Amino acid sequence: MEQIQFKRGSYQLNDDPNFNFQLNRVIQWDGGRLEDIEPIARRIRICADWKRELIALGDRAAAENRIENAIGYYRMSEFFMFDGDPDKQRFYRKATDMFYEWAGPYFESGAVRRLEAPYEDVKLPILYAEAIGTRKGVILLHGGNDSYLEEFFFPMLYLARNGYAVYLFEGPGQGGVVRVQGKKFTHEWERPVKAVLDTIGERDVTIMGASLGGMLAPRAAAFDHRIRRVVGWSVFSNFLDATLSNLPAQFRKTVRWMIRHNLRAPINHILNRKMKKEPIVDWAIHHGMYAYDAATPFDWLRKLDDYKLTDIGPKLTQDMLIIAANRDHFIPIGLLHDEIDALPNLKSLTVRILTEREEAGGHCNVGNPKLTLDTVINWLNHLNERDEAEN
Q1: Which residues of the chain form CATH 3.40.50.1820?
Q2: Which of 139, 326, 334, 354 has the fewest CB atoms below 10 angstroms from its CB?
Q3: What is the pLDDT of residue 246?
Q4: What pTM did the predictor assign?
């Protein structure tokens, strides 16, 4: 059995924090190489540059038979493509087909199995890896706002090799569920999670959600007591708060007041002007409108306020681990206090703030995935010991 190796490092590759984060993600999570990314990183100024450069890297890697690299570049090339661009689905499918061919030995050996959970009018894809050795527990793993099932493949295997059976799934709004099947996000994450749990037949489950999954996973746990433990792999108390977090406090209050009073026209005017001036904002809002099934920028912004823990947090009574990052450019560390305050009835709460000195200070601790996974494993092992002692 080969050892699973994770990369470690955080790099300043692009002056735009969003492009810079995603370039680091390509390297650390998606099979890219620093020596490929670094020469092209500063040529990326707008979304079209991203598309061109990542496809070119994929073509070069494929020509050199570096298939794992090519998969990562093709997969992430579609990230900043606008929904409706025919290349978006083309390169998503290309990367996904290449991935399952490349990963074929894992499926042929039985180390990983593919399952599906019926959910409304679609099927939610599930990958399953049984625990190696004594089964210590079951983990239900998923991503967030813009995740792909396949980028959690090796985290799934690493958790399995440390004794935890893992079901990795995509829900509505994620990966192929939205790109191919067209199923948009729901803040009522307990509904797709129920479909998955009903399909796999497991109880006494730990749910673990990354990024926006740090809000979605606890939301599901609040309504389904087959979930006994919760891992929020990112602070995510309120999506609207996170989105507005870089604005001055008074302006944030004004925007919330305008949303509450249904002032569509001025908000749409402000956001449309910002979209014309800033290409990456234009992409983000257009993609948000698509993935969240919103007709206008105002509707998208209003929907974000549904994605929060502050309303349902008191329903959570399980053990919970929150993994934060001290330099997260999406989620200011100050929002951690809001999340903690929203969770008064947990059996236990553990908070681990990973830092830039650990190369884990960015969103979802992208520079040090092994540290994140080891934190989860150690926490679960400790709870197992506690529960055995209590019984």
Answers
A1: 107-238+307-390
A2: 334
A3: 81
A4: 0.96
